[in-house]
Fold this sequence. Notes:
By secondary structure, chain A is an alpha/beta fold. Chain A has 3 domains: 12-55, lambda repressor-like DNA-binding domains (434 Repressor (Amino-terminal Domain), Orthogonal Bundle), CATH 1.10.260.40; 68-168 and 302-325, 3-Layer(aba) Sandwich (Rossmann fold), CATH 3.40.50.2300; 170-300, Response regulator (Rossmann fold, 3-Layer(aba) Sandwich), CATH 3.40.50.2300. Chain A is 43% helix and 15% strand. The first copy, chain A, contains 12 helices and 12 strands. The first copy, chain A, has helices at residues 12-19, 23-30, 38-51, 57-64, 79-95, 112-122, 138-147, 170-183, 199-214, 231-243, 256-268, 302-315; strands spanning 69-75, 99-105, 127-130, 151-154, 164-168, 189-193, 224-226, 250-253, 278-280, 297-299, 320-323, 326-328. In chain A, the strands form 3 sheets. A 6-stranded parallel β-sheet of chain A has the order 2-1-3-4-5-11, with helices on one face. In chain A, helix 1 (12-19) crosses helix 3 (38-51). Chains A and B meet through helix 4, helix 5, strand 2, helix 6 and helix 7 of A and helix 4, helix 5, strand 2, helix 6 and helix 7 of B. The structure holds a DNA duplex (16 and 16 nucleotides).
Amino acid sequence: MAGRAQQSTATISDVATLAQVSIKTVSRVMNDEPNVRAQTRDRVKEAAKSLNYNPSMLARSLAGGKSYLIGLIYDNINSTYAHDLQTGMIARCRLSKYHLMCEPQTSENPDLIQAISNLLATIRLDGIAISPPFCDMPQILDIIEATGMSYVRISPSKDLGRAACVRMDEFDAAYNLTKHLIERGHKEIGFIRGHPQHGGSHLRFEGFCKALKDYNIDANQNWISQGYFYFESGREAARQIFEHSKRPSAIFAANDYMAFGLMAYLHDMGLKVPEDVSIVGFDDVPGCQLVWPHLTTIHQPVTDMGYAAAEILLNNGPKERVLPYRMIERGSVLKKE
Amino acid sequence: MAGRAQQSTATISDVATLAQVSIKTVSRVMNDEPNVRAQTRDRVKEAAKSLNYNPSMLARSLAGGKSYLIGLIYDNINSTYAHDLQTGMIARCRLSKYHLMCEPQTSENPDLIQAISNLLATIRLDGIAISPPFCDMPQILDIIEATGMSYVRISPSKDLGRAACVRMDEFDAAYNLTKHLIERGHKEIGFIRGHPQHGGSHLRFEGFCKALKDYNIDANQNWISQGYFYFESGREAARQIFEHSKRPSAIFAANDYMAFGLMAYLHDMGLKVPEDVSIVGFDDVPGCQLVWPHLTTIHQPVTDMGYAAAEILLNNGPKERVLPYRMIERGSVLKKE
DNA sequence: CTGAAAGCGCTTACAG
DNA sequence: CTGAAAGCGCTTACAG
């Protein structure tokens, strides 16, 4: 109940008193440092256990100059992506007794830079991961670097050598997905572009263009339409493509949500997938198995990317990790004879 | 770059020196406390700004006995739910310069109690929110209460008076959703139950039963099947219902994911929704607008619930908040003439 | 209206 | 192998 007295938490001094050692020795034991006699160590451990002692993260942080906290700056638009990233990062954090500080932001925020700057000044994070589109904003990287804090970029698309990063080869994935369409007999292929602020949009589009080029297929500009990564923008982009008299036999949407919007549009128009129009998406969000037919797409290993990002931050891992993607073939592509 | 020197962050002493006051006065200004001459206040503010000073959360926490941190313990199974809860809580946290510590758990973890106990001992959280199924586990509430920490339960279903909570009336929502089915002419209604460990499963089922009873409809036990809140369990539960020779004209799935599994089953069997079987779900996850027909369901105001939970924690708000739900009518229910 | 002192619970740097 | 001292950057409690 509310009125209950706060149970006084045991401190390092309590343990020291009980074990009849100095607090420094307790500190050594709690941190698994060497140079403690086995017997002393046992005595301290026992005292700690009997007092149910857990070192205060706050005090350790202030004294030691380490916060045991890493951060994640992400765009709050896509819940699945952010959640998977968190899941991976938290899994790795727990291995090192770290915690994750989630910092959703929106790129529309006019005070974005100030907000991040305040965050960095207020909480002494031991490292920070930045996902798109923030990882491609030079101003943000500048202020992080000014603090000297270590950071990792997730799926950056510009200036890759600037800092540690974890990513997958989106260009290659888009190339192969397009190739998949071509090998199934499609030559009239449209593309719905993603949010121009997200680097992935460009990489995916470039992979698409390269595949067309390699197979000597001309891209029809009427079938290339701008979307913004969300459902309705896919529907709207579809509308623009189908305004033209001649229509493509397949469309590559730069992410799954836009592919869903496209499917909704086709449904409303009485067009069937994949008989009338084949569709592929990108990301492999859970909804891919909800739509009918299920969506052929590229699986991004988002949870693994989060794990790898935390690994780089906590373990001073390699500066770059490129994770493998998988093409997931489902039912949204027709094989033309 | 990595080799860059760490920019020394300004401390309260730096500001005090520059403004020619004591650190106590700086502290007063930073915390908007009274009893500072306007002129002094301005001088301090100026100094703080010129030094780009932000108080260290860590130091404030340790000295003040407040961590400016609240926690959220949630089940990591359903990403949408957890994400929406986080979003609401973070929005409220920012108003009070608080941060949210996310603590995903799984009820399968044998060390669940120990893990939460360690968490509470390690980080001095100023409050904690607990979502299902954890909010209904007496052992967890016990250890939280033993620390004296304030907490709030999100959608608890047992022992509601035990602590502060935010919830919606799931019984009532299920009742009205069932009524909706009945008013559309359905009398042969099945039900797919949710995870027995989640209190909501029972509340929803009870609301369903009550509506049937009030309308003098006998519940056919063959059409009541056990699911576990995830997609495949809905498909499996559907299989069991349709094993029986006589089949229902409508099915209420205790959450949307199971409704999706049910739809997949019907699709595979060549049965049409809503012509052959009408369906309703519960929660209003994004996928509801992806399936075809779109799913009629109950919208849970999850983000608002997160906001309200943080409000209770930070503002010492009312002990109970019951938020309104909305029935969202889409295309998955047939009106029988 | 302002400040000097003590202390939050640890770690660092040093001494023995 | 062990410990005494100083300090992390603030707030609390008190004095004036």
